[in-house]
Amino acid sequence: MAAVTSLVAENPVVIFSRNINCPMTHTVNSLITGFGANPVLYYLDRMPNRQQIESALAQLGRQQNQPAVFIGQQFIGGPTEVNSLLLRNELVPLLLRSNAIWVWRGA
After folding, report:
1. Any idea which fold 2-97 has?
2. Membrane-crossing residues (predicted)?
């Protein structure tokens, strides 16, 4: 779990994907970047400690074929949970609270 915690602590939005070609990862990343956030993507198939990371993510409840999304160091879940936050109008406030995006309030 320490490996995931340290990677997540470094950035406001982190997405763990099984590989670079995962369509669900692309969808979630596009949604989040559309609001101005800049998620860090980790591709498990390219990580030397892949098994350790996958084990930690499984303990959190990640489904193996889905990306795992963290916002503000909090495990959100996968695409279904991110979409649910969006539909409840909770995604943008969560991104704002985690400093993943900011709103300029100029004169």
Report:
1. Glutaredoxin (3.40.30)
2. none
